[in-house]
Every structure is written in structure tokens, then in C-alpha cells.
Specification:
With 222 residues, the protein is α/β, with parallel strands linked by helices. It has one domain: Rossmann fold (3-Layer(aba) Sandwich), CATH 3.40.50.720. The chain is 38% helix and 15% strand. The chain has five helices and nine strands. A seven-stranded parallel β-sheet has the order 3-2-1-4-5-6-9, sandwiched between helices. The longest helix has 28 residues. It is globular. Bound molecules: NADP nicotinamide-adenine-dinucleotide phosphate (NAP).
């Protein structure tokens, strides 16, 4: 299995969880130096904002089967609402959170086709749900919300397009997680979220493809 943004936070906990469960984990991180390989983790350099980096990763993995790809890397961007909305910041967030998962899905499709399970799990956010994202959340994170709404559409469209190939595509909300992004007040320990997400991914089949669920299994309205 492969995970992006494995250097810290939820990505690191997901990588550790899968490795601990006996999976061979291709852990991707953008910053040098990469940690040494070991304990089931094989580290690869990947800056998801850079299409050349995605192409380089895919070339390095040519011929290797992948069962699961988790698009986890993300950035929050500006959170100051309309007043501080910035064009470059907005586009940078869209590039990492919405475009990169699509480019990675395309680049790694041959690897997924060669695997057994064939699952793409996009770590989305309830903040990107038009129906539920603003119920108890007034943050002014326009770029982040728009990027996750775009990722949700990418998930639905990919699910449709890849169904004939037997590839399952999921959008998953990890909860409000105790990471740098989630902050100190967050509710869910990253380890708990990672274990729950891995459980959902492990149970998912083509019947669940195109769904949006929280880490506790509850469906989220788009
Ligand atoms: N925490 C929450 O409460 C929460 C809630 C809803 C959804 N989520 C989602 O859960 C996922 C994980 O979030 P988190 O809380 O673990 O965030 P985090 O603590 O901020 O970690 C983000 C990770 O993404 C990586 N990353 C950022 N830009 C990258 C790039 N261009 N290329 C490669 N890696 C990049 C970071 O790498 P560096 O170390 O190099 O910066 C880091 O490993 C994200 O998709 C996030 O949107 C989180």
C-alpha cells in the first residue's frame, strides 16, 4: 500500500498502523532527508504539488502491484475568510488537496490494476461537504473547503470511471484529529482515527465505491 504525506500527523499514523498490521508500506514524504527504510516502511520522495515528482514516483514503482493508495497529504491554507482570501494561496491548496489525488490516481492506475484489492482512499473532510460542512464549523477556510468539495467530486467521478476496472474509490473524513492541522483542541487521537480508517478501507469493496463516510463509518452527505 502507498500513502502520501506520511511524514507526520494522520499520514504517519496510517503508515505505522498498516506496517504494524504486516503490510508493506510505501510511505511518501516531500522533505529531505527521508527516514531510513525499516519496520515495514519503504520511504519515497513525493511532493504531490509537483507533477514531475508524481511522474518520478510512478516510474520508480513501475511493475509493482499496489492494493491500496491513500491520498492523505493536504494543506489548510488561509483561514481568515473573505478578508484575507489570496489567489495564490487558494490555487496552492487546490493543487495539493484536489488536483494531486487525481494525478496520482492516474499515475498509479497500472499498479492498482495489478494489485488484489484496488482501493483509492481520498482523505477528505466534512468541511468540504456542502450539506454538513457548515453545521457546527464557521472557520473561514475558503480554499480548504473548496478543495475538499472538489476532492469529493473527484472521488465520485473516479469511482464511476474506475468501476469497470474493479477499482474502489472512497472519500473519508478522519474526524477532528489531534495533529498539527487539527490543533490542540481536536477530539480524536491520530492513532484512533488511523485505525478506524484502515478498518473502513479494509472492509470496502466495489459496492462502497463513490461513498463519503466518516472514520466512525457514518455516511456524510455530499
Ligand atoms: N486534522 C484534522 O482535524 C483533519 C480533519 C479533516 C480532514 N483532515 C485531513 O486529513 C489529512 C491529514 O491531515 P493532518 O491533520 O495529518 O495534517 P498535517 O498534520 O498538517 O499533515 C499534513 C501532511 O501532508 C503533507 N504535505 C503537505 N503538502 C504536501 C506536498 N505538497 N507534498 C507531499 N506532502 C505534503 C505534510 O508534509 P510535510 O511534513 O512535508 O509538511 C504532512 O505530512 C489531510 O487530508 C487533511 O485535510 C484532517
Amino acid at each position: 500500500m502507498l500513502i502520501t504525506g506520511a511524514s507526520r500527523g494522520l499520514g504517519w499514523e496510517l503508515a505505522r498502523h498498516y506496517a504494524g498490521a504486516g503490510w508493506r508500506v510505501i510511505a511518501c514524504a516531500r522533505a529531505a532527508p527521508l527516514p531510513p527504510d525499516g519496520d515495514g516502511l519503504e520511504w519515497h520522495r513525493l511532493d504531490v504539488a509537483n507533477p514531475a515528482s508524481i511522474a518520478e514516483l510512478a516510474a520508480g514503482l513501475a511493475g509493482r502491484a499496489l492494493d491500496v493508495v491513500i491520498n492523505n497529504a493536504a494543506i489548510r491554507g488561509d483561514i481568515g475568510g473573505l478578508a484575507t482570501l489570496d489567489a495564490d494561496d487558494f490555487m496552492a491548496v487546490m493543487r495539493v488537496n484536489a488536483l494531486a489525488p487525481l494525478l496520482l490516481a492516474r499515475a498509479l492506475l497500472p499498479n492498482l490494476m495489478a494489485g488484489r484489492a484496488g482501493i483509492i482512499a481520498n482523505i477528505s473532510s466534512r468541511a468540504g461537504s456542502i450539506a454538513e460542512g457548515m453545521i457546527d464549523d464557521e472557520d473561514g477556510d475558503y480554499a480548504y473547503r473548496c478543495s475538499k468539495a472538489a476532492l469529493n467530486m473527484a472521488t465520485a467521478k473516479l469511482a464511476l470511471d474506475l468501476k469497470p476496472a474493479g477499482i474502489t474509490v472512497l472519500a473519508l473524513h478522519p474526524g477532528w484529529v489531534q495533529t498539527d492541522m487539527g490543533g490542540v483542541a481536536a477530539e480524536v487521537p491520530a492513532q484512533q482515527s488511523a485505525a478506524a480508517l484502515a478498518g473502513l478501507i479494509g472492509q470496502a469493496g466495489i459496492a462502497e465505491s463513490g461513498s463519503f463516510r466518516a472514520f466512525d463509518g457514518q455516511p456524510i452527505a455530499w
